[in-house]
Amino acid sequence: MKKIGFLSFGHWSPSPQSGTRSGADALLQSIDLAVAAEELGADGAYYRVHHFARQLASPFPLLAAAGAKTRRIELGTAVIDMRYENPLYMAEDAGAADLIAGGRLQLGISRGSPEQVIDGWRHFGYVPEEGKSDADMARRHSEIFLDLLRGEGFAQPNPRPMFPNPPGLLRLEPFSAGLRDRIWWGAATDATAVWAAKLGMNLQSSTLKFDESGEPLHVQQAKQIRAYRAAWKEAGHTREPRVSVSRSIFALVNDMDRAYFGGSEGEDHFGYIEPEKRAVFGRTYADEPDKLVEQLKADEAIAEADTLLLTVPNQLGVDYNAHVIESILKHVAPALGWR
Prior knowledge:
By secondary structure, this protein is of the alpha/beta class. Helices cover 37% and strands 19% of the residues. It is built from eleven helices and twelve strands. The strands form two sheets. The chain has an eight-stranded parallel barrel with strand order 1-2-3-4-5-6-8-12, surrounded by seven helices. It has a three-stranded antiparallel beta sheet with strand order 7-10-9, with helices on one face. The mean pLDDT is 96.
């Protein structure tokens, strides 16, 4: 059995060819797709966060709204760029959204990828400490956020408060018990996966990672996952960690599927998303269901993970993306033992 969800970047464009032409469209359709995915029996609705872009940005209003419209499906991010975040305000937002959703949030956080503007986090008021990098700053923000989610008091109460306080130091409210165990780290390297394991975060591995061996993405990811699990065991955590991988997978079951994805490239490729950092980009799986099953059997990272996130072409509209999800759940997942 494997949990299967979707991952949407929430792209929008005013182009007549786009089914998602505004920020409002992107947000409302994201909620509608979560509702549709839940009805189809999918396990998760995940959203990517990008700033200064025609995509989804501030995730918590979206997660809260989706949480109010659904009852079972997990709601998450993959990922929130922690270079841009105030950990204290984020802890309040996350706690509120998780309570609205009844404890279903699965928050993926990370250093983030290159953004649309140069050092965009500076516009949000964040600057790395002397001698530190933006990645160091993101990890520091993450550590503060994780500590806050423990729910321990840390702030000295006012001796003359407006309202009565409980005894002792005060914590941020609202507090959602259990959310600390539902934080994931999006790791692009083996080293950051090991770091995440030590801190007790679940692991998200994307459709790309920094190239560390020249091997195909799924092979490098499988090694990353095994290194993560070894570090988790060594750290002595008492619960079982969760691991997700993201994939672009399309079952070609009708003419529309073949028109959109029939000519998709079926190989990994290597390139650069940052200067001097070579990355491996995962292939798109697009084929008839029986052939797709055989291809996916050979993906070592999917085999290692307990959760699979399907990247969806959200600008093709809610109905078509629901069809994409249903095709995997109906025609592919059972043959692979995922259902």
